[in-house]
Amino acid sequence: MKDNPLLVIIDYKDLSTDPSKCDLSLQLTQAFGSCTSNGNSSSNEEADEDIISSLGVIAVRNVPSFIETKKAFLPLAHKLAHLSPSYLEEKLVDEKSMYNAGWSHGKEKLGDLPDYHKASFYFNPITDVPGTEEDRQRFPASYPVNKWPEEGVVDGLESLGKKMGKIMCDTVALLAKHVDVYVKEHCGCHEYSAQMGKEMMTTEKVKGRLLYYFPLDSKNMHSTKDKYHEDSWIGWHNDSGFFTALAGDIFVNHDTGEVIPRQNVDPNAGLMIMNRNGNIMKVDIPEDCMAIQIGECLQIVTGGNVIATPHCVRGVSQDWNGGSGGMDNVKIARISFPCFVDTVPSFPLKVPRGISREQVMERGVKGCAKVPPLNERWDQDGMEFGDFLQKTFAKYYEWSAKKA
CA–CA separation, 150 vs 152, rounded Å? Predict the structure, then answer.
């Protein structure tokens, strides 16, 4: 697969170099930015073309141990998804965390209907029991206790999942240090004080989500027109936290679990993003790269100098004939693994001094009507991150019902 010329790719060696010795400001501007190379915010027509078309995601190549761990871990989602429904429901579902730990299938909704298009296995790769007892009582969705299958049920799920998540979390922490310098020095936001590098290095608020997207057929599609929607596998949304690490994806034969080469899969299926000028684009993350995109909380604390990325996932069309790979009668599923790396829930979502809430909102991506407006969820400067998450979960449910 050829690299997408619009996707910014950096080398892990550069990312792991101290920002004082390796300037990544140009790459960060091209990937995320709402600021120009002269340090000014770019919300007008004079913005540089690279910035206007930036995808809101950056890829990292040559991450140590990433490729082999990904190849071993991602296919385990097929085994997990094919366990008996009674075992999954009785042993791995965690209702008290609002399904933010363990197995979740049909618990989320598309409008007023359960979403059976995908299933998720959530876990914290850093620790099985995050936070204090008080933290877990106050923020049950942020600090759930892990629920793993018994030993021998899905061999390697826990060990490989923790290894994969740790690799991705550590890479996010390296990027966060560069973002700190980028916002303060390159974007001229001298009052920026969030110290994301430090926060990401020490956080226990990490959530891995092993996703299995079921083949779209008449049994799990709510209407025949869904096959034409760019968000038929997962709806349009912004990630509501700080950083989201992405392992890319694989496609498998739903019946056998055999990995299907990408060239034999519907080329329109996969991750869709809305770039900084509101155009919808397909993004394929190279198989040898992980990627990182921005959440809404980072947009807030950087004063809108980096911007959250509207995205969705498009399913394999029922009309896809398999190209030249003989996939005509094969049910194709998708597997991915995003890892959400955030601050403690009590972290205050405050804009840097000299920047208003209105400016933060104005700098966001325009035109994605399926994403609830940020000002309806972040209703006051200094709002705690955990409270913002709770409000966002509720608003997305209300919004999806309204748009259905």
Answer: 6
pLDDT of res. 342: 97
Which tokens belong to 74? 């991602």
Angle between helical axes of 157-181 and 25-32 (0-180°, round to 10): 110
Q: Please enumerate in sequence order all residues whose Cβ is within 8 A of that of 214, keeping only pairs 6 or more positions apart, or say none.
A: 81, 116, 117, 118, 119, 220, 254, 333
* Cβ(231)–Cβ(280) below 8 Å: no
Q: What is the pTM of this model?
A: 0.90
Cβ-count burial of 309 within 10 angstroms (0-12 exposed, 13-18 middle, 19+ buried)? buried
Using only C-alpha atoms, the chain has a radius of gyration, in whole angstroms, of 20
DSSP state of 349: E
Under the banding of pLDDT at 50, 70 and 90, the label for residue 400 is: low
Closest CA to 372 of 404, 340, 403, 341: 403
Task: State whether the Cα torsion 147-148-151-152 is positive or negative.
Answer: positive
d(CA 26, CA 186): 9
Angle at 94 (CA atoms; ends 93, 96), nearest 5 degrees: 150
Q: What is the pLDDT of residues 289-304, one digit of tens each?
A: 999 999 999 999 999 9
pLDDT digit string, tens, across residues 50-105 = 445 688 899 999 999 999 999 999 999 999 999 999 999 999 999 988 899 999 99
Using DSSP's 3-state secondary structure scheme, residue 248 falls into strand
